[in-house]
Amino acid sequence: MTYKIAVFNGPNLNLLGTREPETYGYDTLATIEKLCHQTGESCGAEIEFFQTNHEGDLIDRIQGCRGNTDAIVLNAAAWTHTSVALRDAVTAVSLPLYEVHITNVHKRDAFRHHSFLSDVSVGVICGFGIQGYEYAIRQAVVNLSK
Ligand code: DQA
C-alpha cells in the first residue's frame, strides 16, 4: 500500500542554508525535499512537497488535500504561532497532522512556545533538525498502517 503524504512548509523556509545558520543549520530546503522523497520511497509513501511565503496559498494546498492525501506533515514556521486560519484549514480537511520544527521552539523566544496547531496534531516533532521530517513521515506511515 502506498500512502500519499503532503509535506508543507511555511514562510522563510526557502532561505534555509543561508538563514541564521547558527539556529537552523546549513541544510537547504532542497536537501529537506530530497530527504522526504528518500524517506517516502523507503517506507511506502508518495510525497507531495511544497513551500510558500503566502498564507492563502498554504491554506489552498491544505484544502486541496481533501480526498487525495492520507496525512500532512507541516512545518508552518512563523504561522504556527499566529494563524487561526491555518488551524481551521487543517481541522476542516480532517487529515492526521504531524507538526514539525527544525529547532526546539521551547528553548527559544516565549512567543514561539505557543502553537495553534499542536492540539490538533497527532504529534509534534521539534529540535531534531531536518531529521524531524523523516521521523514524522515514518510515524505517519506506521499510524496509517495500523
Ligand atoms: C521553525 C520555528 C518557528 O518558530 C520559526 O518561525 C520558523 C522555523 C522551525 O522549523 O524551527 O520559521 O518552524
From TrEMBL:
GO terms for biological process: amino acid biosynthetic process; aromatic amino acid family biosynthetic process; chorismate biosynthetic process; quinate catabolic process. The keyword Glycosyltransferase does not apply. GO terms for molecular function: 3-dehydroquinate dehydratase activity. It catalyses: 3-dehydroquinate = 3-dehydroshikimate + H2O. The keyword Lyase applies. It holds the Pfam family DHquinase_II. The active site is at Y24 (proton acceptor), H101 (proton donor). It is an enzyme of class 4 (lyase). Coiled coil: none annotated. Keywords: Amino-acid biosynthesis, Aromatic amino acid biosynthesis, Lyase. The record marks R19 as: Transition state stabilizer. InterPro entries: DHquinase_II (IPR001874), DHquinase_II_sf (IPR036441). Substrate binds at N75, H81, D88, I102, T103, R112. Signal peptide: none annotated. Gene3D superfamilies: Dehydroquinase, class II. Catalyzes a trans-dehydration via an enolate intermediate. Belongs to the type-II 3-dehydroquinase family. Homododecamer. This is 3-dehydroquinate dehydratase. It comes from Rahnella sikkimica. The gene is aroQ.
